[in-house]
Each structure stands twice: as structure tokens, then as C-alpha cells.
Amino acid sequence: MSEDIFIGLDIGGTKTSLSLGSVDGVLLAFRRVATEAAAGPECWFERVKGLLDELRHEAPDAFRRARAVGVAAPGPMSVARGCMIAPPNLPGWREVPVAKWMAAATNRPVFINNDANAAGLAEYFFGEFRGTPDLVYLTLSTGIGAGVISGGRLVQGARDLGGEVGHHVLDREGPLCPCGQRGCWEMYCGGRNVADRLRARIAAGARSRVLELAGGNPERIDFRALVAAAREGDALATEFWTEFIERLAQGIGTILMFFNPSAVLLGTIAIHTGEFLLVPLHAALPRYAWSLSRKGVRITPSVLGERIGDLAAIAVAIQGIRAADVRPPGCR
Ligand SMILES: [Zn+2]
Fold this sequence. Notes:
The chain is of the alpha/beta class.
């Protein structure tokens, strides 16, 4: 058994996961812990070190053989410096040198990338369309980001901002985004933003089944309640869902025209809504992309599901090692 093993660290706004996985994408062991961002990154990393000890204990042989560590973390970040810069969903975390910390804790090379890019690599290495040289993974949950594989390479960008599609502007008169621009795609299709706007409409007196589905508590109105009410044909929920689909088509149409992928894998919201999302999405796409660019492209929910975070981190390690193996001597 000479199969390569890697350590993956997947950092999310609420959960952190540490895993051991093989080059084939088989997860051998994993542990999860609450990120508890408010307690600060140093305190968080003490808990990560505890998880490392647990994995070392649970799978000593695999742990010993692990070649490298991959970190999937919220952006923005510096891949070269191995550092999270100031992720909006980890308030107060600034310039966190997570790669340096992990290298010290594991004595192995550490590679880092943002979560959407990492998920794109996971699709490329392990997903339904693995090995497809032109594919895009689209995070479709609280926020929106993409991992773009073009010509068999991840589109990283000069400042690691390749794939930051959630902040491409669909309407300059649109709602103000926390990033400072107006009408970013994420304002229309990020689950949290859509739920916030729906909540505001209901608080202003609009009537909707959504409120009942949220147990009568406006605070509990979320994207899931919106989808449930839209499925029932509720007028307000349908208005929001129709807008969501149209903006999703607008954004995906742009991706099709920019990168001409042969597969677009969709994250959380699409995984939970399936055909209810896909049918109207395909009906709207001709307004935003040429038939030639739509032809043959598979747009489908990711089959990696719940495992994608762990696999994303493992994929970052694999990509890092492969790139390091072909790098000329003397280069970092
Ligand atoms: Zn924005």
C-alpha cells in the first residue's frame, strides 16, 4: 500500500473539519469541531491541534504516511504566504498564518486555497466529472463563489481572486453589498441575502406562507422556508424564487460565456432543490448565453455532497504536491 495520504483542514464560519484522505478521495478518518470564530484564531488553533492528536491516535499508520497538508479556508487570502487576510465570515481574524501554524504542528508541507477554488479542485479530482479539463464548481449557499478549472488548471488569478464571481455586478442600481459595490450576484443569489430581503418585506407587512413555515417567527425566516413556500405556490415566495432563478441564470450565463465549461457543478441550494431549480434555470439560460456555449454543458448539483469540504482540503494538498513535484529546483 504505497497510496498517497494527505491531511485536510477545512475551515468554515461555523465548523472546522480535519481529515485524512487518500489520493483517490477516500476519507479515512475525520473530526469536526465548532470554529467559534469570536474566541479568536489562536484559541481555535489550539482546538485544531487537539484534533490532530485525535487523528494521529485513531489512524497512526495513515497519519505517519501523510505527505502534505491542504487547507481550504474562506477568502480573501494569500496563497503564497499561506495566510487568511480578513475573511468576512470570521470577524476579527486578520493575517492568520494558518499554513505556518499547520506546518509547525505537522512537520509537513502545507498548501492553502480558498474554499470555492478548493471545491473546484475536489470536483476535478474526485467528482462526477473528474478529469474534465473545463469545469466550474459554484458554491451556492450563504454566499457565492466559484472554483474554475480551465484547460486542466485552476484559475487562481494574480491576487488569488480568480473565481470571485459572487461580487461581479449584475445591476449597478441593485442592493448595496457589504463589499461596497451595488448589485453583486451574491446579493441576489446568496441564501442569506435573499432570506434577509424576504424577512424585510414580511416585516414591512407583506403576507406570505413563509411566516407560518418559519413557525410564525420572522427571525426564523430562512432560504429553506422560502423554497418550501415557493413549492406551495405562495405568491411572495414565488416572486423571490423567480428573481433568484433569473439572477442565477444571469450569473451562470456569464460563466458559460467566459469559460465555456463542459460541466457546472452546483452546491448546497441546488443539492436541496434539484429539478425545482434546474428546470426554470435551463429555461432562463438562453437569455444570457449563446446556444453554442450552452450546448453539451452539464449543469447539475454536485454529487460530493456533505463530503465536499473535506475532499476540497485534501484536493488542495494533492494539487500542491503535484505542482511542487514539477517545479524547477530552487523555486518555492
Ligand atoms: Zn459584493
